[in-house]
Design a protein that fits this description.
With 65 residues, the chain is α/β, with parallel strands linked by helices. It has one domain. The protein is 20% helix and 29% strand. The strands form 2 sheets. It has a 3-stranded parallel β-sheet.
Length: 65
Amino acid sequence: MYMPKVIKALILTADKFEDMELFFPYYRLLEEGLEVDVTAPEKDQIEGEHGYEFEIKKTSGLTPV
């Protein structure tokens, strides 16, 4: 039985991200069938520079500078 390979992608971001630099690749990767995780320094809802919000479910453990 053929089992299709699951391709995963990880996007690193933080609060006050440039909205389109997160959303464009995120949705394009989903459209192509990849499993996409988005991570930030803290689990929470983050907001982009233009007010779009995104819920973070995984943390990166990194500290933004």
